[in-house]
Amino acid sequence: MSVGSRRQRGQHALFLALPVLAAMVSQNVMNLVDTAMVGTLGDAALAAVGLGGFAIFMCQALVLGVGTAVQAMAARRKGAGQGGQTAEPLNAGLLICLVAGPLLSLPLFFAIPPAYPWLNADPEVIEKGVPYLQTRIIAITFMGMNWAFRGYWNAVDMARMYLFTLVTMHVLNIFLNYVLIFGHFGAPALGVTGAGLASAIATAVGTLVHVYLARRHAGSAGFFRTRPPMDVIRRLLRISLPNGVQQLSFSTSFVVLFWIIGQIGTREVAAASVLINIMLLAVLPAMALGLTTASLVGQSLGAGSVRDAHRWGWDVVRLALVMLGILALPMWLLPELLLSGFIHDDETRSLAITPMRLVGVFMVVEAFGMILMHALLGAGDARRTMLTAVSLQWLGFLPIAWLVGPGLGGGLLAVWLAQGAYRLVQAMVFTWLWQRLKWARVKA
């Protein structure tokens, strides 16, 4: 799908990305509200929810790859003018989640009590964290389905449906938190377990909202009309499994990174926690643009235009570099001012100042690599993308981070320099893969 000049194409990509960005901002605001409400219960409750949220992301990583596969396949059909078949991959993705979700959640549910002490040995955290995580685990099937719907709405340029559902879920989650954590309206005060139950219920309701919207807006596209063909299911699995492995690798690598920094010192862990959270928040525009790029590339390939698909990758990269460059300016120029809102200890804050400037520099590089990574995923080239990301993480960055940080005594700054080098190399590899055009021959 061609959209005129470079400026017009950039405006079109930004227009499509705005609802996705709004949804991501909504998710982050919800996380902050959730943390604030649980934080009133004490440090052990906060630690249990923090660890649980991270653990649930690891546990559900394999089903989250379904959303990427649905997006790549549905976008191809939209670009090819096959409007009556765009929901076919969505049907297949929902079926896979319906089967795989319980197969994952049931064993994990029973494995949590003996495994949780490996995350944290504090008896109070274990007491609160085990039921919280078990409650969240139950909703893995619904979470996978929600990501499948997200991939579909993004693929057909209807991200506003995803945004509407997410806001509905968040409003319900906040209300249920109020009721179930603190015991209002006659409900028992379940504390941390109530927070987990609220999230699980909100996730399930979100799936029902998605189904309702899809029946209204995707019925003519084949939603729930016929059983998905086996070849569609096989192709969906071929794309989704590598991406699920990549998601699992990404989440697990953060555990290892914090362990490495923990070998340096407690101040360094505190500083790193703030730096990573700021970075993850700041790259949200690049993530939103990346998801939009995946749809635009898939649609172009469906229309039979490899040239147009290739142009979309670079057009959105230019847009992302401008946006992230502007967002990075305060990190370069006023790092201490930014950090003072999060770190109140002078010595810890001073440790983070130079790494914060590096976050600003390498955030732009991260945007470059993130856009092209999503462009490759939009083309259905999930296997090469996964091999690149996982090998660079586990064979490159993490061993080097341990060597230069605690190993050679380089401290937090050395770890952050290693991370910046890793982001740069990854962006270069994704650029090479994008320019080779082998992704154009992937069948999705």
TrEMBL record:
GO terms for molecular function: antiporter activity; xenobiotic transmembrane transporter activity. It comes from the Bacteria. It is a multi-pass membrane protein. GO terms for biological process: monoatomic ion transport. Keywords: Antiport, Cell membrane, Ion transport, Membrane, Transmembrane, Transmembrane helix, Transport. NCBIfam families: matE. This is Multidrug-efflux transporter.
